[in-house]
Amino acid sequence: MALLIIPMTCFGSTLATSQPCQTPDDFVAATSPGHIMIGGLFAIHEKMLSSEDYPRRPEIQKCVGFEISIFLQALAMIHSIEMINNSPLLSGVTLGYEIYDTCTEVTVAMAATLRFLSKLNCSRETMEFKCDYSSYMPRVKAVIGAGYSEITMAVSRMLNLQLMPQVSYESTAEILSDKIRFPSFLRTVPSDFYQTKAMAHLIQKSGWNWIGIIATDDDYGRLALNTFAVQIAANNVCIAFKEVLPAFLSDNTIEIRINETLEKITAEAQLLDILKNVTFTDEGNSFHFDAHGDMNTGYDVVLWKEINGHMTITKMAQYDLKNDVFIITDQETKNEFRNLKQIQSKCSKECSPGQMKKTTRSQHICCYECVNCPENHYSNQTDMDHCLLCNNETHWAPVRSTRCFEKEVEYLNWNDSLAILLLALSLLGILFVLAIGIIFTRNLNTPVVKSSGGLLVCYVILLCHFLNFASTGFFIGEPQDFTCKTRQTLFGVSFTLCISCILMKSLKILLAFSFDPKLQNFLKCLYKPILIIFTCTGIQVVICTIWLIFAAPAVEENVSLPRVIILECEEGSVLAFGTMLGYIAILAFICFIFAFKGRKLPEHYNEAKFITFGMLIYFIAWITFIPVYATTFGKYLPAVEIIVILISNYGILCCTFFPKCYVILCKQETNTKSAFLKMIYSYSSHTASSLAISHVSLDSTNSSITMTDPSSGSRSAAWQEGKDLQAQAFAHICRENATRVSKILPRKRSSSI
To answer: Is the pLDDT reported for residue 614 higher than 70?
Structure first.
């Protein structure tokens, strides 16, 4: 402290009287004269003795703890300067030096720095204070040192006053790269930024994430600790503990120092700018200062290993700053490097692929639990923070999966057991259609065939059934745009044509056996077979055509299921699909009404009764279809519609043709003209008798009503008028039936209903 105060007193006197003060005897220095003087700061002693006096005196204490390695560095500087002086490198110019021992103490280094800044050709204790030092000539032109970053920062702030170049051989604190605060500082070692970066890289390469940090209690240690903590946090490495040790220890093996010497010193003018551009080579490697004043050297990665109680230090690799890689020279060190991975330094067990890390309540992110990836998620690396999501439209993944699997494309395949069963039923239906066609063709002139509307109508209906059975084949197999458009259109038009023909037959039966003159006249006007069939079918054709033009069915991939893609036909328009089915339902309902009206016709030829049953089967099937179709999904959705088509088609086919085939094949005695005419005659006579009995009952009812209320003249007249009308109607019906029977029996003509 006395040394620090003495120059301050000297400075004050310099301003006043400019008288120098003496150098303290305990201030250690090595000096050699020269044209250009270079300063040196080396911590040749480990520390200063602390004063036992109280209060403490402002004086420099004795230095103790001789450091042979630092002393050798000082000798290396002297040797380098002597080599330059003895070489023709600086012809006519001699380099001198002043080397001071900092005793690893900032105050001693500051005192030496003040001597460096003293004015040329004056006493060492003389320094002038100016606002502009451009023309000021200090005794020393550049300073080598110091070693410790804490001392270097203090010295550099003083040297900044005159922008005196300072080249450090050992100070690595990252803050020294800041050229705003330390514009004249240069160094021949890399910044701690790269050192901590190399350490973080080594830790990551070894697979560690749970480490402890030991740092020295100085600017160098604290700044490096902060930088290192930030870098390892970016690699998800946690710090288990931090320990700060005193900055200066006596054991020389604590630190591995790099001995760099200044190879070239240029002339006096603009020394700082020239130093920044210096480039030299050593053993084939090129070295230079970067924009931050840092040297582009790397680091040696050393391994401390205790063997038989002795600590050995082995160089394992060299860290390349530029490429951020470790350079390994031989196989032995490569094996040592690889063995680092066998050292377990983790807070938690490593999460395997297919798992992810779940952070616990611990303060460290490196302490976690491993949980399995859920369905449709995967992880393909160890210790992943989260599982990756598969593309749900095309891929899937089971629980704890390491990759995504492509979804299988499914549809109602031809090889599917249900599809085979439905196809067998469709083929059976086609065989039934062909068999019925053959039976009706071979019995063309029988009353049963003629009463069915003739062979042409039967062929048309059978063709419709054939197409309905065939349309089921378009619901099976891989969906194509053509099959999607064809299957609904084919079914809708063919089934509508079938219902239209049956509607025409129901209307004809009702017309043939209706004895109500008004109803008969209405049915006669309505009964236009060709017009009815073409009109009813044409409307359905228009519906399907509009559907195909504006919203045609198309192939669609249903990706809603987790593991499969359902290839299906999207109907295009639910409204059009519903309109097509609804129109068929309306025709079927009208057909049902007409058939129900004629359900009491002759027993063996009562086709209307079976048509009624067929329409009921159709209604039950399609009413059931709507909720089932709306709630079913997957590849078996087309099978639902196939089943409904088969049920309704089989129902109408069986109810329309099977009773007739039964009569043709098993009741041949009733399939004759005479039996047919006898049945009609019996039905007509029974109907006429029923009408007569109904008329007598009506007359007696009217008489009783008249006798009960004889005073009611106007009401009696009304009943009498109704009675006359009913009598006329009964006489007309009897005459009509008698005429029909008299025309039929004598002529023995074969009737076709």
So the answer is: yes
CB burial readout 443-478, b (16+ within 10 A) else e: beebbbbbbbbebebbebbbbbbbbbbbbbbbbbee
DSSP 401: B
What is the pLDDT confidence band of residue 121, given thresholds at 50, 70 and 90? Answer: confident
Got the DSSP string for 329-343? -SHHHHHHHHHGGGS
Tokens representing 482 are 């053509």
- Phi then psi for residue 135, to 5 deg, are -100, 5
Q: Which residues contact 672 (CB under 8 A, 6 or more apart)?
A: 447
Lowest average pLDDT, out of 169-178, 338-347, 638-647, 723-732, goes to 723-732
**CB 334, CB 350: distance < 8 Å:** no
Question: E strands, 399-505, where?
Answer: 405-406, 408-410
**3-class secondary structure, 667:** coil
pLDDT digits (tens, 9 = 90+) for 241-290: 777 777 655 444 444 433 433 333 334 645 556 666 666 666 666 766 66
Strands (DSSP E) contained in 458-612 are 554-558, 564-570
Looking at residue 295, the DSSP 8-state letter turns out to be B
Tell me which long-range contacts 506-511 makes (C-beta under 8 A, separation of at least 24).
Answer: 506/591, 506/594, 506/595, 506/598, 506/608, 506/611, 507/532, 507/594, 508/453, 508/753, 509/594, 509/595, 509/598, 509/601, 509/607, 509/608, 509/753, 510/594, 510/597, 510/598, 510/608
In Å, how far are 242, 371, 392, 403, 562 from 397, measured between CA atoms? 43, 16, 9, 7, 9
